[in-house]
Specification:
The protein is α/β, with parallel strands linked by helices. It has 7 helices and 8 strands. It has an 8-stranded mixed beta sheet with strand order 3-2-1-4-5-6-7-8, sandwiched between helices. A hairpin with a 2-residue loop joins β7 and β8. α1 packs across α7 and α3 packs parallel to α4. The longest helix has 26 residues. The chain is globular.
């Protein structure tokens, strides 16, 4: 089996996901670009390869059981193992004026769709990739979260945390809780799993509003993906350190 480490980044065709893939590629990882859209995935792979990265496309819809199973089979064929999984794919769900999701008028179908991608999709992909991750000497799992997941920050009136987002924010809180459960399960093993907050990044996800670049947003996830053995697990971190749950 090749000594080159292999990473899979979901939602890697653009934005933060693309920059995570680019950063890992620059560090010598072979990078699977997970994305639903064939054309965008191919374009991202081409751009990464042009920059010198060893990248390959992975057709992947995190909400589809068959798609996730097929992705795991493709990685088995391409690499035989997986060293890093970055669960980056996510959606905000439809918002109203001011990017608000009003809890009093919230469409439950919207909530289900957001949770299916942001939480169930992470569980679906992680569990499908575990057999490959267990073949790595130092497997790392990174779940891309958000500062809005912090109940401490949400509940503090003196902290500016942005608009009310009654579907998206709780989905990331749920994701953080799931991350902790995985960390507890893998305690004492070589599998490290952590949640990364990229900050407010100017991408199409935010309508290109935000003070941070996608490269800056990718930095914490890349750091967690390349932690040394014995590093932290079950943590929720941003550039400045640990975030209160």
């Amino acid at each position: 089996m090749s000594e080159t480490k292999t990473a899979l980044v979901t939602g890697a065709n653009k934005g933060i996901g693309y920059e995570i893939a680019a950063g890992l590629g620059a560090l010598g990882y072979r990078v699977g670009v997970g994305a639903r859209d064939d054309a965008r995935r191919a374009a991202a792979v081409g751009k990464l390869r042009a920059a010198g990265a060893d990248a390959f496309g992975v057709p992947l819809d995190v909400t589809g059981d068959r798609s996730v199973t097929d992705a795991a089979e493709l990685l088995e064929q391409q690499a035989g193992r997986l060293d890093v999984l970055v669960n980056n794919a996510g959606i905000s769900g439809e918002t109203g004026p001011g990017w608000v999701q009003d809890p009093t008028t919230l469409d439950l179908d919207l909530v289900r769709a957001v949770v299916d991608t942001n939480v169930l999709g992470v569980i679906r992909v992680t569990n499908a990739m575990l057999p490959l991750l267990r073949r790595s000497s130092s497997p790392r799992i990174v779940n891309v979260s958000s500062a809005v997941a912090s109940l401490t920050r949400q509940a503090d009136p003196d902290i500016e945390i942005g608009p009310v987002m009654a579907a998206y924010a709780p989905s990331k809180t749920f994701l953080n809780a799931v991350t902790v459960q995985y960390a507890r399960h893998f305690a004492g093993t070589n599998i490290l799993i952590n949640a990364a907050c990229p900050g407010l990044v100017a991408t199409d996800f935010t309508g290109f509003h935000g003070p941070r670049t996608p490269e800056q947003g990718a930095a914490t996830a890349i750091r967690l993906a390349t932690l040394p053995d014995g590093g932290p697990t079950g943590s929720f971190v941003e550039d400045d350190g640990v975030i209160s749950w």
